[in-house]
Design goal:
Layout (H helix, E strand, L loop, with lengths): L10 H11 L2 H10 L2 H4 L7 H16 L10 H16 L4 H8 L7 H20 L5 H6 L12 E8 L2 H9 L6 E5 L3 H8 L4 E5 L11 E3 L5 H4 L1 H10 L1 H16 L8 H12 L4 H33 L7 H8 L5 H25 L8 H7 L13 H31 L2 H26 L6 E3 L3 E7 L10 E6 L10 E6 L5 H16 L8 E5 L3 E5 L8 H12 L7 E6 L7 H17 L3 E5 L3 H7 L5 E10 L5 E8 L8 H11 L2 H12 L3
Parallel strand pairs: 1-2, 1-3, 3-4, 5-9, 8-12, 8-13, 10-11, 11-12
Antiparallel strand pairs: 6-7, 6-9, 13-14
Helix pairs in contact: 1-2, 2-4, 5-6, 5-21, 6-20, 7-20, 12-19, 13-14, 13-20, 15-17, 15-19, 16-17, 23-24, 25-26
Bound molecules: adenosine-5'-triphosphate.
Function: Has ATPase and non-specific DNA-binding activities.
Family: Belongs to the DNA mismatch repair MutS family. Archaeal Muts2 subfamily.
Cofactor: a divalent metal cation
Length: about 675
């Protein structure tokens, strides 16, 4: 098959598909695989168009058209409503898009292939019951690949124009400042603006610059580990869901995966709370200023109190010394009050550092923030404080960088694994959703037989909230009824005739999609198409009658059809309608088709019929305690069900009062 063999693909679209997928073979493979997600990446291709394109390609590969089976609007509506229910089961967009590419057809091979898929899907969903996998699948999102926030405290420098260009081409400058330096001076100037400069190249001496590190690699994880980590951080929820879902699949022995453990361990490191030393430094940075201020304030209060309560007696010598050349009254005070001052200073410094878990020279550095000079009031040395905080920030940053590099190095080789895992689990969601749809609704795989027929036991309409099971069969299903392939369904108003027709349509559509159907068991033949005619409202005018009859002309064509019609009699006067229905049924029966017509004109139709037409009926058995009709939803075969007006009259007679009730009673007596 070629791309041009797909209906709707002209040379222009074919070219675009080849550009998108690389070559014709890959493009065709993508269409047949149902790659809607990949197709909508093409400009101007909507999801609906992509879905239809996949359907046409699939259809073409089996020699069918996706629109052929659903021959009427009503049939297409039933299919759409079924698809709505089906896609409700999908946890991901990918699964939803793939599910939407399924369609009913008369191709035995296509149905067979889908049946194999559906059977595998149901078996898989069964094995995964109560494992909670759905929660993890629901957390899967498309993988993102943003550059992440800029690193502002560091920069990368190189002395080589070639390296500079290569790094730019790799987009390193999107995350961190990138510089080309030509001399040690350049480098020194640059270093002043950052906590750390990573230098690539050996021509410039950087030994004397503590803010410069000589790079030992050019890999992304080394130069900008934040970028690698960002890929994993921004996809953390999805990766976590992937790991959990994959683990469940392994435990349930549904699938095996390589490299899960390594990825899981590295992801755990990514999520780990920071390094305790970095946390200590951060706490120190946050608290040091306040502590120093508080200690100085305390010392000033203390000095004031102590000074106020003491007096100093000066000897004449002291006065001469202080007043003499180069003399200073401070020296006098230092000699008299030195011990008091020193004691207060010591206590203040202890107050500043207590509980800060200082290490190495940090204690001494902190002490230096409160000058030992004898003076009042004491003050914090702001310049020393700034230098101290700056140093701590650099130490913390260096440790953080080291830790980031370690995790980034591990993770940098795992991205392909993440992408592959993501693809597999999105594909898996399609299978799992399909299986869950069948399992949660108790669907069963139908059996295809040769004779024209359709029938099921305990069918439950998927469109009703709490459906009563219904069994019905037309043609030689071997389940019940007789061999007639055409039936007229009569019965009480609101008995469930329309609902039953819809159920037959649901069964036919799902079976021809290769999917299980809502019944305990089901047998049917392969049909070329489904004609479903809904109930029309009121008698049609001449123009509308003509249009309706034209639609029926298609029924005369070749091929086995399943025809479901709801109260066609409304198309024209009852007498004419009965004749038309009878002759339609004759045409269909002779053509080897199967038909179920809901009609209140069953007796008249049977009178005009030239072929064997069975009349079945849905009947009311009586009234319940609240005077509601008790209906047997499964039709009785070969039984003309009355509309049971006497039950309605009985209800009226019992619920009305006085004269009105008597009136209904008199009418009712005519039936007894
Ligand atoms: N199998 C079923 N289980 C539960 N409820 C049902 C079932 N079949 C039909 N009903 C309910 O009965 C009501 C009437 O059904 P429906 O419209 O199919 O009847 P009808 O025989 O076509 O009526 P009418 O002759 O008036 O067109 C609907 O509201 C539907 O929900």
């Amino acid at each position: 098959m070629k791309l041009l063999d797909v209906p709707g693909v002209g040379s222009k679209l074919s070219e675009r598909l080849i550009t998108r997928y690389g070559d014709e073979e890959a493009a065709l493979e993508a269409l047949l695989r149902g790659d809607v997600a990949g197709l909508i990446e093409m400009r101007g291709m909507s999801e609906r168009q992509a879905t239809a394109l996949v359907q046409r390609a699939r259809g073409a590969s089996y020699g069918v058209s996706p629109a052929a089976f659903l021959a009427t609007e009503e049939a297409a509506r039933i299919y759409s409503s079924l698809m709505e229910l089906l896609v409700e089961e999908a946890h991901t967009d990918r699964a939803r898009q793939r599910l939407l590419t399924l369609f009913p057809s008369s191709s035995r091979e296509m149905i067979e292939e889908n049946r194999r898929l559906a059977e595998e899907a149901v078996a898989t969903a069964k094995r995964l019951q109560n494992t909670g996998i759905a929660d993890h699948l629901s957390r899967l999102r498309p993988l993102r690949r943003g550059a992440g926030p800029r690193v502002r405290s560091r920069s990368v420098a190189t002395d080589s124009a070639t390296t500079f260009r290569a790094l730019k081409d790799r987009g390193i400058d999107r995350t961190v400042d990138l510089h080309l330096v030509e001399s040690s001076r350049d480098l020194r100037d640059l270093a002043q603006g950052y906590d750390l400069v990573t230098l690539l190249g050996r021509s410039i001496d950087s030994l004397s610059l503590p803010e410069v590190e000589e790079a030992v690699g050019e890999e992304e994880w080394y130069l900008v580990p934040e970028r690698v980590l960002h890929h994993y951080q921004e996809n953390e929820t999805t990766i976590d869901a992937l790991l959990k879902a994959a683990e469940i699949l392994e435990v349930a022995e549904v699938a095996r995966f390589e490299g899960l453990e390594g990825l899981s361990l590295s992801m755990a490191k990514l999520a780990e709370e920071g390094d305790p030393e970095v946390q200590r430094l951060e706490r120190l940075m946050a608290e040091v200023e306040g502590r120093a201020e508080e200690a100085v304030a305390w010392a000033n209060r203390e000095l004031k109190t102590r000074m106020e309560s003491c007096s100093v007696t000066l000897a004449g010598d002291d006065l001469l010394l202080a007043l003499g050349k180069g003399g200073d009254l401070r020296d006098v005070f230092r000699s008299r009050m030195g011990e008091t001052f020193a004691a207060v200073l010591r206590s203040a410094r202890e107050r500043a550092s207590s509980g800060l878990h200082l290490k190495g020279s940090e204690g001494a550095r902190l002490e230096e923030l409160i000058s030992p000079e004898v003076r009042y009031p004491l003050e914090v040395d702001r310049a020393a404080l700034a230098v101290f905080v700056q140093e701590m920030r650099k130490r913390a940053e260096a440790r953080r960088l080291k830790a980031r590099r370690e995790v980034a190095k591990e993770l940098s080789g795992m991205w392909e694994l993440v992408v592959a895992l993501h693809e597999r689990l999105l594909d898996f969601d399609f299978i799992y959703s399909l299986g869950s749809f069948a399992l949660s609704r108790g669907l069963a795989m139908p059996a295809f037989v040769e004779e024209p027929c359709i029938g099921f036991l305990e069918g439950r309409s998927l469109f009703l909230k709490d459906p009563e099971p219904v069994s019905y069969s037309v043609g030689h299903t071997g389940l019940a009824g007789g061999g007639e392939t055409t039936a007229i369904l009569s019965g009480v108003n609101s008995g469930g005739k329309t609902a039953l027709l819809e159920l037959v349509a649901q069964v036919a559509v799902l079976a021809h999609m290769g999917l299980p159907v809502p019944a305990r068991s089901c047998r049917l033949s392969l049909f070329e198409s489904l004609y479903h005619f809904g109930k029309s409202r009121g008698t049609l005018g001449a123009g509308a009658f003509e249009a309706t009859i034209r639609k029926f002309s298609a029924l005369a064509g070749e091929g086995r059809k399943l025809v479901l019609a709801d109260e066609l009699e409304a198309m024209t006067e009852p007498g004419a309608s009965a004749r038309i229905i009878a002759s339609l049924l004759g045409e269909l029966s002779r053509g080897g088709s199967v038909a179920i017509f809901v009609s209140h004109l069953a007796e008249e139709v049977a009178r005009f019929a030239e072929t064997a037409v069975r009349i079945d009926g849905i009947e009311a058995r009586g009234l319940d305690e609240e005077y509601r009709l008790i209906v047997d939803r499964s039709p009785r075969y070969r039984h003309l069900a009355k509309s049971t007006p006497e039950l309605i009259l009985e209800r009226l007679a019992r619920t009305a009062e006085g004269g009105e009730s008597e009136f209904y009673g008199r009418l009712l007596s005519k039936f007894r």
